[in-house]
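Tokens in:
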């Protein structure tokens, strides 16, 4: 996976110990790291004539959802007055420190989906932890 070298909390217990700002930063890095590979993936599957329109529509929907989630996390970050100065350099894949052009493009579709699912699960877990910290009344 192209994000394997990215430092992320290993396990729920460790993620819970990380400060809110740092955990938010990890979430944004993961989301940003998938922007370009998802774009390439969408272009790749558009050339598969045998794929049903529904599959193509779902792939584009996933890309849009990742973009919207990233935008939403950035807005929450700003509202919570986290220090986002360190996040400003993440406008491109270079900002994540990842070389995604070769590795992500060379992955098979199943490997790509496996990696995306893995990172999606991480983001989901980290967001749940943040939600519990921000709104403890949810009995997390």
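Residues out:
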């Amino acid at each position: 996976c192209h994000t394997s070298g990215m430092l992320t909390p290993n396990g729920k217990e460790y993620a819970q110990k990380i400060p809110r700002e740092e955990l938010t930063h990890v979430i944004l890095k993961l989301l940003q790291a998938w922007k370009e590979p998802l774009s390439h993936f969408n272009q790749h599957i558009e050339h598969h004539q045998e794929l049903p329109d529904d599959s193509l529509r779902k792939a584009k929907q996933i890309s849009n959802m990742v973009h919207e989630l990233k935008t939403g996390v950035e807005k929450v970050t700003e509202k919570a007055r986290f220090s986002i100065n360190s996040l400003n350099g993440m406008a491109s894949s270079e900002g994540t420190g990842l070389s995604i052009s070769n590795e992500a493009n060379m992955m098979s579709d199943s490997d790509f989906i496996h990696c995306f699912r893995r990172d999606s699960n991480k983001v989901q877990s980290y967001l749940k932890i943040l939600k519990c910290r921000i709104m403890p009344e949810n009995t997390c």
